[in-house]
Write a structure and sequence with these properties.
The structure is a single chain. The chain is mostly beta strands. Among the domains are: about 140 residues, Sandwich (Jelly Rolls), CATH 2.60.120; about 100 residues, no CATH class. About 5% of the residues lie in helices and about 45% in strands. The chain contains two helices and 45 strands. The strands form twelve sheets. Strands 2, 3, 36, 37, 40, 41 and 43 form a seven-stranded mixed sheet that branches. A hairpin with a 2-residue loop joins strand 13 and strand 14. The two termini are about 25 Å apart.
Length: about 500
């Protein structure tokens, strides 16, 4: 018989039956899809050899200062501390606020029915200054970058209210409306008690005046829809706010209302403070049971691995979930915790959505926070370690620093031949790789019955020079696993070809 290719649909599919997964990929690790083809993801290297020594990194924000020749900085929030990476000095500087600051917890805990949330910072820039809020403690803190330039021992400090004005004493998080230069605090204390659905906003151009008067633009509003506001993100001419159940929009309209608020969708809340990403006017986020997008209206994103993600998500630690934008490859990554111990599970897994091709992939990678490329040429992400975390430049090279990055992709079972009646004998394999560097392993696994025991029949080492491999394998259904685990390796896979010969009827 002539050589035949067994076409496999782009994307990973994990939420269907064994029969329905024929002609699809069913698992992957550190593999993406570009133009319908699977390929190994890029590697990563340390941004700096020094470690962040206190706390698990949960937030990172690259920004530029307007002083000292427009230097690059990175605000870094761990569960217990606040750091500044000074690109010019090449060092991590502890800027944790002083006595007014309450360190957050590494994990979300439950004691006597009371939640203590994991310490997660939200950060934004106000001019050249860095503003920060941690839900634990909840004060609005600022690093005055001009003061820091004069004294590198300067720490972030609680913002002091303008004379005759006030600042909410606590908040769940913050964002800056850069259009009107207003600081927005969500879950803002109302002066008497916690108000988890209250939004407070400052006067124009101020970070320390939240008291509304007849002639200023400060104010506050209590939203309806959910138990607490968790996150916010900027998009075209508006800010999206997310509670645990509901998505809202917030648009600056000037006096007298200042902001117009609109409920966009119920049952489309966010899973954690950093679980949203925005690109080209579209916001993507991870909810409590699905994925969503907004570009004028909220839409659920069809996901071929949705059940896999949410069945394995550690629900108690879901606030740790975060989104990472990787625009070079048209991707949003969501990282999430998995495990069997709700009390201490941390990030282990990710899911990738290619928003141009509408395909999904999955894998494992321990990361705590992400920042898209922009000020830095590469996306930045942090490791997860309580006493020695690092920032990494992703899409740098092909390795896990100097170590091999193990990657793989697995197809579902495919009938041989496609009517599935005969046992078939596979005698030849012709690889189809592009951009290949180093050896690639191709493992052929077979079954004689749909739910029978799977066995490995052939393991092929495909070198860059391999054009053909004689093999001897037989069965009714075949699954293909492509993998590599060598330094400096890379590959992009096309349509392999096989010589398949009939080998009699299967036993029933």
């Amino acid at each position: 018989m002539p050589l035949a290719k067994l076409p496999i649909q782009a994307g990973v599919f994990k939420d269907d039956t064994v029969y329905s997964q024929e002609g699809r990929y069913v698992d992957a690790d550190k593999v993406r899809f570009m133009k319908g083809r699977p390929e190994k993801i890029g590697g990563w290297i340390k941004l700096d050899s020094d470690a962040i020594t206190s706390g698990v990194v949960r937030s990172i924000l690259p920004f530029r200062g307007q002083v000292a020749n427009n230097k690059r900085y990175i605000g870094i929030g761990t569960h217990s501390h606040l750091y500044l990476y000074d690109d010019g000095a090449g060092s991590y500087i502890d800027i944790t606020p002083g006595s007014s600051y309450t360190a957050g917890a590494q994990h979300t805990t439950i004691s006597s029915g009371v939640f203590t949330f994991a310490g997660i910072w939200t950060m934004d820039t106000f001019g050249e200054d860095l503003l920060c809020v941690n839900k634990i403690g909840g004060k609005l803190y600022k690093l005055d970058l001009s003061a820091y330039q004069g004294d590198a021992t300067t720490n972030a400090a609680a913002v002091t209210a303008l004379s005759g004005s006030s600042i909410p004493s606590t908040a769940n998080g913050m964002i800056v409306n850069q259009q009107s230069r207003q600081v927005i605090l969500f879950g803002a204390h109302d002066g008497t008690s916690d108000a988890p659905m209250r939004v407070a906003f400052s006067d124009l151009g101020t970070d320390n005046d939240f008291t509304a008067t007849l002639d200023n633009f400060a104010g506050a509003i209590e939203l309806q829809g959910g138990n607490l506001l968790l996150g916010a993100i900027r998009t075209k001419g508006q800010i999206l706010l997310f509670s645990d159940t509901t998505a809202f929009s917030m648009t600056f309209v000037g006096q007298p209302d200042v902001f117009q608020f609109q409920t966009l969708a119920d049952n489309a809340g966010i899973v954690g403070p950093h679980a949203a990403a925005e690109h080209n006017g579209i916001v993507y986020w991870m909810g409590n049971d699905g994925f969503y997008a907004y570009s004028g209206q909220v839409q659920s994103i069809p996901c071929t691995v949705e059940r896999h993600v949410f069945d394995n998500l550690t629900k108690q630690q879901k606030l740790k979930c975060f989104a990472g934008l990787n625009t070079k490859f048209n991707e949003v990554w969501w990282f999430y915790p998995t495990g069997s111990n709700d009390a201490s599970d941390d990030i282990t897994n990710y899911v990738i959505f290619n928003y141009l091709e509408n395909v999904w992939s999955v894998g494992t990678l321990v990361r705590g926070a992400w920042a898209a490329e922009g000020i830095y040429d590469n996306p930045l992400a942090s490791s997860v370690a309580a006493s020695s975390s690092y920032l990494y430049k992703h899409e740098s090279g092909t390795d896990d620093e100097s170590s091999a990055m193990e990657c793989s992709i697995t197809s579902g079972d495919m009938d041989l031949p496609q009517d599935g009646d005969d046992i078939m004998h596979v005698t030849d394999f012709v690889p189809d790789f592009d951009d290949q560097v180093g050896d690639v392993t191709v493992t052929l696994k077979f079954r004689d019955h749909p739910n029978g025991t799977q066995r490995t029949e052939e393991t092929i080492t495909a070198a860059t020079s391999t054009t053909h491999q004689s093999i001897r394998a037989r069965g009714r259904q075949m699954s293909v696993v492509v993998s590599s685990n060598a330094t400096s390796s890379h590959w992009r896979m096309g349509d392999h070809r096989y010589n398949v010969q009939p080998d009699g009827k299967r036993n029933t």
